[in-house]
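Continuing from yesterday's entry. The apo prediction looked reasonable, so today I'm repeating it with pyridoxal-5'-phosphate included to see how the binding region is handled. Same sequence as before; SMILES copied from the compound registry.
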Amino acid sequence: MQVPLLDLKAQFSCYKDAALKEIQEIAEAQYFINGPKVEKAEKELNDYCQSEFAVGVSSGSDALIISLMAEDIGHGDEVICPPFTFFATAGAIHRVGAKPVFCDVDETSFNIDPEKIRAAITPNTKAIIPVHLFGQMADMDPIMDIAKEYNLIVIEDGAQAIGSEYKGKKAGTIGDYGCFSFFPSKNLGAFGDGGLVTTNCEKKYKKLKSLRNHGSEVKYFHDYVGGNFRLDAIQAAVVSCKLPFLDSWHEARAKNAAYYREKFAEAGLGDKVKLPTVVEGTTKHIYNQFTLVVENDRDKLVQGLRDAGIGCDIYYPKSLSVQDCFSYLGHKDGDFPVTDKLCSSVVAIPIFPELTTEQQDVVVAKIKEILG
Ligand SMILES: *Cc1c(COP(=O)(O)O)cnc(C)c1O
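Holo prediction written out below.
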């Protein structure tokens, strides 16, 4: 039995008719940019995220860039982020001309370790970007305390975590900005690229809206140099059609996670495979990924799973601190030991909502066979 890492076709039937009807309407109206579909999606997403304001943007990466731009963060400024994340988190900081300053993660949560943030702060620090990795929120209380103490902006990178909760609060509502992605492999994916920024501040909201459209509120009059960061109507409509199903998909992922926990325990793999931990403070994990830590033989496991037709992937194999493009920062292996350790021991296995228990049994049995 083949088991894909993600099966997007399996959920298409739920919203297919609605989405195709929307796309047909857009094609007939020839109204592709901004307009009523985008406004509708923004309102629905704002309600779902329990934020005050939401601005649709062109991608999760652009959500980060536009948030940094809204704070005038650029040359000479430093922004703290974890080195164990998708590239875009640090890429956005570099793109606005600021310096990414890495802060190691916590081994249990995979998220930025609040205890290590203070040591990374300098007089040039302007912001912190905690990432809610794999669908579990970072430990926001201590992060917000530090931000308050040093007067720093907090931009939540919730690209993998829309709808997740920390102490009952939704991702994107605790910091100054919440950034989300509708890349197809995220829990809420569009038919292409798209993203969202949430904020609880009206002033920030207005600036985000302006920046998304070349810094212009009134056509041909520019208050800022912004960019084209717009969400297009087709992506907005697809996201609207999928949103009513999102919580049921999150639940199905959580149910699959619970079943894995049962099966891994039965298989007696406890000493070889560490399952993802739901840490204190997490009131909702949305399991964008189900990431195992396998300290010995991770690469043998990955090869064995692939040979057996079982999807898996390594998020992430190399610390951002030692990527070639960041060599100017002067980091070496070992600077962020927890990240380095995770890079050589993590592997994500299938967790998508439509995964069946039979498929999960196959995955666990194969892992047991490979790791012996
Ligand atoms: C996917 C992702 C992004 C970027 O989102 P795109 O929509 O692909 O640009 C940013 N940060 C994290 C943590 C992500 O997983």
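Comparison notes:
- The chain has ten helices and twelve strands.
- Residues 59-61, 85-86, 88-89, 131, 157, 159-160, 181, 183, 193, 195 surround pyridoxal-5'-phosphate (CB under 6 Å).
Will overlay with the apo model tomorrow.
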